[in-house]
Amino acid sequence: MHRLLNDAVRTLAPSGQDRHGPLPPLMLTLTVVTGLVDAVSYLALGHVFVANMTGNVVFLGFALVGAANLSALASVVALTAFLVGALAGGRLGTRFATHRGKLLKTATAVQTVLVAVTVAAAAVTDGRVTTGVQYTLIVFLGFGMGLQNAVARRLGVPDLTTTVLTLTLTGLAADSTPAGGAAPRPGRRILSVLAMFLGAFVGAQLVLHGHLVLTLSLALLLLAVTCVTAHRLSAADPAWTRPPS
Fold first, then answer.
1. Which of 36, 66, 161, 243 is the most exposed, having the fewest neighbouring CB atoms within 10 Å of its CB?
2. Which residues are within 8 A (CB) of 67 and not within 5 positions of it... i.e. 6 or more apart?
3. Burial of 17 per CB tally in 10 Å (0-12, 13-18, 19+)
4. From CA 59, how far away is CA 50, in angstroms rounded?
5. Region 74-96: what's the mean pLDDT?
6. How far apart are CA 230 and CA 234, in angstroms?
7. Which residues contact 180 (CB under 8 A, 6 or more apart)?
């Protein structure tokens, strides 16, 4: 327990000598955003994910054999938008390959614009999800989540993919002491799971009570804060901005 608490503290308040610097808490913030966004997509946009592509592939298979309340078109659009976003994220990763701070700042700036579009689109209809709003949100949120996932891969912080938890949960169990492992970074892994849960919980509470615009606005705020923070903390080119060896 003492080790777990110490690891959690280092994750939330990394020391100046940590090779990842402030990246872990910033990426935990993006993980919360993922929970919020998938709450919107699954609960308000017709049972589709914009961040969890494993779920979309499965939903597409279900929809093609006629499963109720699932749309093959929505799944295909989400998958396509995500892939285009991942392509854009890969291009950004190549452009800012030597500076992780600029990479995160630029990616979250783009995401902030994308989510701002979804806030405006939802606000126009006062939170009612028309077909136009549904697909506008799927495209822009899917693009943003693909971008985020690709950039997280380039940032290279272990156990903080920001959009999926399968490998994180597997590592938490498979690398644990009872399994004969060294149990590396248990605090970071648990915090990643909790961050996703928090975003999903808060997002579901808001969406199910008719606050779609507020949910998207909260995601927008978190992205903007992450962008500004990354810009300020990386301005002097500290050691953590260099790619991990």
1. 66
2. none
3. exposed
4. 12
5. 97
6. 6
7. none
Rounded CA separation 213/126 (Å): 8
| C-alpha distance across the termini of the chain, in Å | 30
**Residues 208/210/212/214 CA torsion (nearest 10 deg):** -110
Q: What pLDDT sits at residue 12?
A: 47
Cα angle 138, 141, 40 (rounded to 5 degrees) comes to 75
Taking a C-beta distance cutoff of 8 angstroms, is the pair 49, 63 a contact?
Answer: no
User: 207: which 2 tokens?
Assistant: 């969406």
Mean pLDDT of 171-187: 74
**Ramachandran bin of 175, using left for φ above 0, alpha for ψ from -120 to 50, beta for the remaining angles:** alpha
| Contact by Cβ (8 Å): 85, 146 | yes
Q: The tokens of 17 are what?
A: 């000598």
**Average pLDDT, integer, range 142-158:** 95
> Residue 7 pLDDT > 90, yes or no?
no
1 is written with which tokens? Answer: 């327990």
| pTM as predicted | 0.90
Judged against a pLDDT cut of 80, whether residue 15 lies above it is answered with no
Q: Which residue has the tokens 């929970």?
A: 35
Q: Say if residues 87 and 199 touch (Cβ distance below 8 Å).
A: no
Instruction: Considering only the C-alpha atoms of the chain, give the largest distance between any 2 of them, rounded to a whole number of Å.
Output: 56
Mean predicted confidence (pLDDT) in 36-48: 96
Average pLDDT score over the chain: 90
